[in-house]
Amino acid sequence: MSKAADRGASLRRGLQFLGATGTVTGSKYLLRAGDARLLIDCGLFQGYKQLRLRNWAPLPLKPAALSAVVLTHAHIDHSGYLPLLVRNGFAGKAYCSEGTRDLCRVMLPDAGRLQEEEADYLNRRGLSRHKPARPLYTERDAKHALTLLQPVDFGVPLDLQGLTLTLFPAGHILGASIASLEQGNTRIVFSGDLGRMEDAVMAPPARVRHADYLVLESTYGNRRHDNSDPQEKLASLIRATVARGGVMLIPAFAVGRTQTLLHFIHSLKERGEIPADLPVFLNSPMATEATGAYVKYCARHGAEHRLTPTQIQALSHTAVFVDSPDDSRRLNARGGPMVIIAGSGMATGGRVVHHLKAFAPDPRNTILFAGFQAGGTRGATMVAGAGSVKIHGEYVPVRAQVAMIENLSAHADAGEILAWLRGFEQAPRQTFITHGEPAAADALRRDIEEALGWRCSVPDYMESVELA
Questions:
Q1: Letter string b/e over residues 252-289, b meaning 16 or more CB atoms within 10 A of that residue's CB
Q2: Which of 217, 342, 369, 395 is the most exposed place for a label (fewest CB within 10 A)?
Q3: Residue 54 CB coordination number (10 Å)
Q4: In this structure, what DSSP letter does residue 63 have?
Q5: Burial annotation 105-142 (CB, 10 A radius, 16+ → b, else e)
Q6: What CA–CA distances, in Å, run from 310 to 19, 387, 404, 408?
Q7: Domains, the chain, ordered by start
Q8: Model's pTM, two decimal places?
Q9: Which tens digits make up the pLDDT trace of 379-390?
C-alpha cells in the first residue's frame, strides 16, 4: 500500500467497543480501516439480565457488511455470538488458531443445544414470561457457523483486505491468541485473554514488542493471585468433604479449567493425597468432547502447554464421563463421597444447575468454584455468601460449604499483566482497558499509568474512537 493510500485509510480508521466494557463478557470490537470492517471477537454477554439482553439487540452495522471476524479464543464470552451473527447475515470468514477452531467445534453446538433445552424446560414448566420462550440460536445455527471458521498458524501473517493479521499464543487455554493487525505503519494489538506466567498446564503468553494501540483485558486487574499451591487447597477440601461423607460439586468451565482440575486430581491420587478410589465424575458432554480435543491437540502442539505425554493421556482416564441425562439424574440420588465436575463454570446453565438443586441444601457437601465469577451469575451470588439461590424460578437453600480457589484462574493477574507489558520496547500511543469489572479495569489503568507512564483509558459500551 502506498503512503498516500495509507494516509487516506488512516483517516477512516476507527475502533468501536461493542462489548467487554464494564464487564468480563460479550467481547466484541469493531475495527474500521478503509473499506474493511472487522469484528475482533464475537462473544456473548453473560451474568446480569441487563447485560444478557444486549445479546438480543442489533449491532450498529448489518452483519453482512462485515469483511471478516477474528476470534482470539473459544470461550463463549469471546466466540458464542458467532452463530447469531451468521444467522443474521454474516457470510465471511472467521479467522482463528487451529486450537480455537477445534474447541469451537465442541463449544458452539453445545451452546446452541443448551439454549434450546433451557427454552424447552421453561416452556414445559410455564416459567417464562415469553410465550413461548425462544433460544437465542439453535444447535443447527451453531453448526452452520462452524463452516466459516478458517484456521491461521501462529506467527504467519495473513492479508485481510489491506490489513495484515498475525496471531501469537496467549496461554490461557489451548489455541488462545493475541491478535495483531497492521495497516501501513500502524499496528493495533488485541490481547485476548492473557494466560498465567507459571500456569500448571499452559505455556506463558508470547511477548509483544510493539503496538501503536493496545486493547488489553483486565479480568484480574485489581488482584494478585494467591501464591499458595492450588493443589494443596483442592486436596484439603476434598479430604474434608470425604470425611463428612459428602459430595464435592465443582462448577467448571468445560474448556481449560476442567482439564486443569482433571490433571490436579490425577496427580493428587498418584501422590496419595486424596483416596485413590474416590469416584470422580465429569458430567458435561461439552467438557467430555473438549477433553478429547485437548488430548489430541496437546499431542500435536507441544509448544503451547507443559504436559508430558503421560499427563496428557491421564486426562482421559481420571474421571467417569457421564453422557446421558438419565445417568446425570442418577448422580443426584447417589450418595457420597464423590467428586462431580459439571458445567457451567459460573453456574449459569448446564447440568451443574440440576446438581445444585440436589446438593446445595446438604451441609455435608461442598460447592467449589474454580475461577472468576462474573457479577450477576449464580456463582457470584453463592461466593458472596447468599443463603439461597434462584434456580428455575424457585429458591434453593445453600447449606453446603461454598469454597473458592481463585488461583486456579487461567487469567494473568495484575502483576503478571504488568510484567507482560514491560516486554514492550516503547509505549503504545493509547492503551484501552477492557474485559474487566469497573473496579478491576480502573485499578489496572491506574497501575499502568503510574508504573509505566502509558496513556490509558477505560472505554464505555458502544464508544467509538479514531485511530490516527
A1: bbbbbbbbbbbbbbbbbbeeebbeeebebbbbbbbbbb
A2: 395
A3: 18
A4: G
A5: bbbbbbbbbbbbebbeebeeeeeeeeeebebbbbbebb
A6: 40, 43, 29, 22
A7: 3-223+410-466 (3.60.15.10), 230-408 (3.40.50.10890)
A8: 0.86
A9: 999 999 999 999
